[in-house]
Structure of Transcriptional regulator, LysR family:
Amino acid sequence: MVCSIEFRQLQSFVVLAEELHFGRAADRLDITQPALSKQILVLEKAVGVQLFFRTKRTVTLTHAGQTFLHQARQLLLQRDQAILLTRRTGDGEIGQLSIGFTKTATQTVLPQLLRQFVQRYPEVDLDLRELATEAQVTALNQDNIDVAFLHPPIDQRGLQLQIILAESFVAVLPPQHPFVHLDAIPLEAFANEPLIVHPRREGPILYDGFQQVCQRAGFQPNIIKESITLQTRLCLVAAGLGITFVSDRLQALVGTNVVCRPIQDCPIQLEFGAAWRQNAANPVLQNFLELLVGKNDV
């Protein structure tokens, strides 16, 4: 048989069990003694057993009442914990945040941003996923990540985009390449060079933009290989198979087996920004965005 018990009845029972005096217990609960007596009687009826021995002079717990006291305290504690947990979840102090990112993020805003966020919200579970830009857009639209650090332009339908920075590209050369002696490489110098680039499917707008600036310079780029991973492209360059390009901030990641040189009057820039769903309701994300916005003065 299911009995109906209210939390206020449990609270009254626990206070009376602690005071063993109806007057003092009623004062603590800020109710009248008759109201307290009625609550206890209703509770005993719901439980189906007597919880207190009562005389004109004394109030004591029955054996069943002693057992019920422990359980009542646990229920009240669980109630308080549930309320606190729910409030903290609603405030974004606990929960989960899934973050997609490219390598540029690791060399710019992400490390410090994560450090500040963890210090402020240590109980949030962070899920970090290194993904290419287009994969991040797909993950956002499928609700698989909450925020993406990626390279625009992107399909922004349903998304909010905040540009963080824009930077030029540099050429990454084999150490023995004659271009390493140049202070800056003219774009038209790449006309007859084998090029290793990021796949079009992972950034079609940027890929097509590169094709267009090459065509305006009077040549069709000789793309011999496409690879999604920077390390693969760098390995191919180090082997002398061609030239690749990285953003200026990623020069620190290329290692000592290749050489970077700037592109003269670089006609194309790599933008970097953060994106999230316009209808995102995760309160943890809102707290993260407050830090991001404050950090970038946007």
Observations:
- The mean pLDDT is 91.
- Residues 188 and 217 are 6 Å apart (CA to CA).
- DSSP finds ten helices and eleven strands in the chain.
- The chain has three domains: 7-90, 97-164+272-296, 166-269.
